[in-house]
């Protein structure tokens, strides 16, 4: 189930879904969303924050604090929505989006290269294999350090997103570590997010 905190469902068009922990949201997240919109002509991108994690708890920043950081980061991004989900697999997310949006939208799940490699090669046990899942959505993969080679059997359903130089390597882990070490970090996140982190005293040692 999707819960919206900014924006809402479209009746038709091309919708991207960017799931993430956003701990915190970084310039790389924003760049990936903007590049996906520009290169694949998306009408909307949903920044999707899970309500719970399957194997860990919320640390560093709470669910509400991460929502506040996302709200701050996306103030000027008119094509971006914010929502939460109680499910985590890509096929579960795609089905939840379809339930909210209806049959008139084309769904694109967005992730980085490292996540794409895990997702494509994951053992889905008794569920449909990933090729079957891609009948329900397409996938956009952002470059992260190096390009992503689409597996031969999935060409046409998985597409590359070219990231601006240097941004593909920025990570939320890098931001948290820099804050805890009192190193420079503000250049890694949107200015409004940096202000929120300082004001809320997030990620401090």
What report would you give on this structure?
The protein has helices spanning 27-40, 63-73, 90-101, 113-121, 130-133, 172-180, 191-200; strands spanning 2-6, 13-19, 44-50, 80-85, 105-112, 138-142, 158-161. The protein is an alpha/beta fold and 205 residues long. Strands 1-4-3-2-5-6-7 form a 7-stranded mixed sheet. α1 links the parallel β2 (13-19) and β3. It is globular and about 45 Å long.
Number of strands: 7
Q: Kindly report the spatial arrangement of strands forming the biggest sheet.
A: 1-4-3-2-5-6-7
State the major sheet.
Answer: 7 strands, mixed
Q: CATH fold name, please?
A: Rossmann fold
The helix content, as a percent range, equals 25-40%
Question: Judging from the principal axes of the Cα atoms, what is the shape?
Answer: globular
Distance between the termini: 35 Å
Structure summary:
The chain is of the alpha/beta class and 205 residues long.
Keywords for this structure?
205 residues, Rossmann fold, 7 helices, 20% strand, globular
Blueprint (SSEs and pairs):
Layout (H helix, E strand, L loop, with lengths): L1 E5 L6 E7 L7 H14 L3 E7 L12 H11 L6 E6 L4 H12 L3 E8 H9 L8 H4 L4 E5 L15 E4 L10 H9 L10 H10 L5
Parallel strand pairs: 2-3, 2-5, 3-4, 5-6, 6-7
Antiparallel strand pairs: 1-4
